[in-house]
């Protein structure tokens, strides 16, 4: 029976890939056995309520084996039909090339880019531990689940998994149970040509509990998972020796079966070898389906038991139950805004606003948890009085270490809890190291907050290796990510307010190292409109004092102050200047055309963008006739003020560029 | 005496940082001892000829400790004066915040972003091994040097160092000797809060030779380095337990001494503690200088010996000596172009051109060596008949494994040899994983070639996780990187020709997965001009057949063919259309204004850009009145043709967008 179940997974995968003429049969064929044991023997889940908060999580980090997951989801009764499987890799199907986050059908995260799922799981385990810390009470373990993942050699070769593995071991995340599908084959061939390290030893060095098992020894696998679950203080790695393309007489154990359909003839040979009926394709024996589908009834039962526990908990701890519901509904508790600071008149570095905001709201926003990739003091993300996660009771400061990429993947996993608002910080330059995790957060529309500080040459002496130039362009061009670069403390508070409320996708807050003056909201765009203006992405900060606007200066962050300096000078000269503060391109683009044209009137073609970063993208706002005072080269090592002067970021230069634009129009 | 030498390094660093009011004293103070042993006892170098090809290499991977390196370079007689040290972190000084590649004063690579130097060293060791394989002959070990690096806990936490470490162990790069400065402190505090893994065990798992030593036990350090050098088959890691900020009574062993000057009072206390004169600052005892400067004479001797060896080699093997000179002059051997293919009329995927070119020129271009991050078959980078590097005699195919970031760092290290032309390939989407190494290649102006294939939704079924959108914008906004996206096989060959000749910076070749028709060079921009046109970045491919140009369509890569389809239709309708193929923005921007205006006449404002990627940046060429047929959202999983249709990348849509633009001008 077990063998028939396993072969059903294999052959559904093979047939779907054959029909799509595209896909990766090697993994589902090779690794169906451990998946079968895990899903039928261990995984606590409810196929009819995939969003049950206390379910075990399953991640197929080796996302190219997606058909394995789809086959199991179908068989165990999720809303994924045989027709969906026949629709594999077609337009608008549920069965995408790689698993794409879909909590309604049991897909816990988007995987495919290797190593990401590995790190997501670590984030999920941190979330589990943190939520347990917040909600569990004696006799009421309302948060208590495991995170299982299947990972490949590709996952383990990626640096992100070393980063996340080292941190998971350090944190002692015992709820993690990872199965390494050790098939000795990569796309380029045998792992002998590139990957001969001792994986077991590496993970022991990372403080993991490591076991080795034959990937087809079902009782052996069962025993290993049992032991792994029993290990509460260390994450577990089960190294399962498997054979890619298992059952294919000519392709097993070759890289040829990794990413291409078997081909009609080899499908036939494989089915013969495994004693599987040649026809019809997509064959699912009734007793196999019946066996798998018992997951539905079992799921109903275990969720039912948990619900009873939770109901009793709600009686005993009504406040906690209420907090639970608010958190899991993705809402913020009433009155959280009371913790937002009001800024004074003193210049502040926008990076320092982070600490003020976070520490102001942390008490009320218990779902807010995060930390830094070893730059907590510099980025201002330390929550005072809360200690370190795991090390201290009630701790909620995460020290990711110098591991930006893992931080990105872990934040995604935390956000996937559906309850937490995770944040992570580093210098803007190192957003490069974690870029791909940011992309996946955007793709999954996760409420992750990035705090990227030291946002320009304003970083000064550390030099070009630490001075971002092209990072803003990279982030802004990522679909679904909202990038905000506030111009002063007040905009920074408003940006934080927006970020904390945002549930529809990640937000990157771009903060200055250096102090910035506070804009005089008495004279310019008034403070009472600030939150609205900020959410609109761009707004008129200072308008022409001489009737019609002749010159538009658009700027973000620190450079808004240069624009304002130039405004004063040019205004004195009788020129009609408008300064637009544009903290977020994405938010501005979401406004209707009327508003956008109001802020940037099409009639005004003398336009100057000022930003100490790559000019990439600014021509959208200044046009071919406009000018950009930006940075199209790397920075340098010197005091910040020197750099701004040497690279032309001075009021004088803004004035001069503005004049040149106007003289082109016969003015100035 | 040793102690005085070590204290000189420490105090020069402290004083320079104090004067600059900026810098990282903790590392130079804590780790001067192993540096002293290494530089005075082992490093084979010539301060008066830092470019001597057979010198040992030294990398300060923990680049924030830059003053340590500057102090030693000054003391041992490189062209770096005491005044340069006093000028630390000032505008235009040689002593930048982090070491910036400067082969004239002994700075072997740019470091600071952690983990990069670690990977560079692995690339240098690959280069050493490869050059030895090419040039050494019995009795003539003309290539024989070690690569030493000092790495920090931050370096080792970064995933890139795990990737590179695993590969270095696999390749058995015995010439690597890395010293891990194990000081137990990071910016956030003690490593106890985030980094408790067993580093020795991890590197043993990576197949390294590992030793532990007290970082102040000079004979112990010496013995360890000696043993490490003696280990020819495995890279070596020496774990030296040191104390950050050694000697500072109040700050040693605290994170406070990592990245801030000690402060006047603590400087005084430290000097007292170490028995160092309080005044003057920048004190270098004469006998210390004398001792260090003996490196100059020793350097002259060892280079002299090597030169004798090389002269004899040149007599015995004149062809090899000639080859050596050509390679080290950064020149390509005569006639190398003969290997470039001439394309036929058949459609080809531009990715497949890579294999044709590489295999055509490989025989002549022996300095060309590279490989893939486990995508050799898909990206076409396999050199046939050359076997695998290290595994096969004469092998020169590198299998980086699924380790894109390490590949990036390693390619930089290989390029730093000054002789090799390294290349690496992966899917364009995974350029994200290695972005920061690309940035550093650009900053160092290294001749690295990236082959990024599967360049759009044309990748098809694998879905949005594998379909690039914002990657082109990220690469194009990186200063100093040349990005080329050829439109057909002929442009692809020309792009390769350019890339192979380019010595002034990295080139990214952006290749299609899908087949693209060959442009009919009989009817359109003629083949004889192709190389020139390509180098100009953008050129008129098809011009108006109705006099004046009314509509400009600008496209790259696969989308040029949509533009050409629209051209045919609109031309038939009597509209004056011009199609511009713009494979490289960077190259186009390097042309003079006359040429640019000739290709894109300012009088034509009806402009349409077509590219299946983020529109970011295209407004530079189409202006605010123009239109972009681009992709401002993620892709999807479906056959490529379906995706192009669903997302509007059809000839019909280009025609329709063009018409709309013209109707805005009262036309069409």
Give an overview in words.
The structure is a homodimer of 668-residue chains. Helices cover 41% and strands 13% of the residues of chain A. Chain A has 25 helices and 20 strands. In chain A, the strands form 5 sheets. A 6-stranded parallel sheet of chain A has the order 10-9-11-12-14-13, with helices on both faces. Chain A has a 5-stranded parallel sheet with strand order 1-2-3-7-6, sandwiched between helices. The first copy, chain A, has a 5-stranded mixed sheet with strand order 16-18-17-19-20. In chain A, α18 links the parallel β13 (482-484) and β14 (507-510).
Structural class of chain A comes to alpha/beta
Helical percent range of chain A?
Answer: 40-55%
Name the shape of chain A in a single word.
Answer: elongated
- Overall strand count of chain A: 20
How widely separated are the two ends of chain A?
87 Å
Strand content of chain A: 5-15%
Work out the largest interface and the residue count of each chain.
A-B, 113 and 113 residues
Count of discrete alpha- or pi-helical segments spanning 4 or more residues of chain A: 25
Taking the sheet with the most strands of chain A, its summary is: 6 strands, parallel
**Which oligomeric state applies?**
homodimer
Strand order of the largest sheet of chain A: 10-9-11-12-14-13
Low-confidence stretches of chain A: none
- Overall radius of gyration of chain A: 28 Å
Query: Mean pLDDT of chain A, rounded to whole units?
Result: 97
